Amino acid sequence: MGRMISVAVFGAVGIAILVSLGVWQLQRLGWKEGILAEIEARIADAPVALPEVPDAEADRYLPVAVSGRIGAEALRVLVSQRGIGAGYRLISVLETEGGRRVLLDRGVLPVADDLPAPPEGMVAVLGNLHWPEERDGFTPDNDVAGNIWFARDVGVMAAHLGTEPVLVIARALDPAEAGVTPLPVTSEGIPNDHLNYAVTWFLLALVWLGMTVFLLWRIRQRPD
Questions:
Q1: Would you say the C-alpha torsion 45, 150, 96, 155 has a positive or negative sign?
Q2: Structure confidence at residue 131 (pLDDT)
Q3: What's CA 185's distance to the chain center, in Å?
């Protein structure tokens, strides 16, 4: 009898811990969905002029409207689009009417296409400021000589092209650029796996319950 009580207590404690972890992940899911909704609202907000001194945290996703000339050089950043395949993001210099030099993510180009010449003259850009965090321990080093980059390292790209460490990701260009499709900022790339984690914890709790019941049954079947 004492062994059955010990097993039952141990099982109940384990189930309680696993269920509490699942509930915690559901709470985190609600929090994350609220954050994503705020980001989406900020992305779609009315555009403003380019800040004098943009801040990587306070101005992340800030919608901006800026005009300038696009430089001839373009850095190619490898990107994969779901349902489309591989392409290159084109990162160029945008020299504003006021003489500032910032980075411009013009959009994506199919990998098989040659680099197009940028639009001539002044271009009006509607986009969002962003400082992507795309590099991790598995990201290859950029092939600068071959002009194949594997992450939008804003500081590194800015040093390479001689610009401010500021990246404007275009939503639309006027005039539009033939052959280059804008790939604007969205919240899709922000991970939100809390529901999967919650389901995992609840399933583990169910397995723990099954194991506890089975063990209690085995103990009960043994002769005294």
A1: positive
A2: 94
A3: 9
Predicted confidence at residue 155, as pLDDT, reads 94
Cα–Cα dist 218/220, whole Å: 5
Q: How far is CA 211 from CA 7, 93, 134, 194, 197, in A?
A: 10, 62, 42, 26, 21
Predicted confidence (pLDDT) per residue in 3-38, tens digit: 778 778 888 888 899 999 999 998 888 887 777 777
Rounded distance, CA 82 to CA 54, Å? Answer: 31
Question: Where is average pLDDT lowest: 31-35, 46-50, 162-166?
Answer: 31-35
- Rounded CA-CA distance 102/87 in Å is 23
Residue 111 is given by DSSP the state T
> What is the CB neighbour count within 10 angstroms for residue 62?
21
Where are the alpha helices (H) located in the chain, listed in sequence order? Answer: 2-43, 154-161, 194-221
Question: How many Å apart are CA 23 and CA 43, to the nearest integer?
Answer: 30
**Cβ neighbours, 10 Å, residue 135:** 15
Sequence-ordered list of residues with C-beta below 8 angstroms from that of 158, at least 6 positions apart, any chain: 103, 164, 165, 166
Characterize 20-37 residue by residue with b for buried, 16 or more Cβ atoms within 10 angstroms of its Cβ, and e for exposed: ebbeebbebbeebeeeee
Residue for token pair 């004098």: 52
The SS3 of residue 99 is: coil
- Give this prediction's pTM: 0.75
Q: Is 35 helix (H, G, I), strand (E, B) or coil?
A: helix
* Least confident stretch, 10-19, 52-61, 186-195, 200-209: 186-195
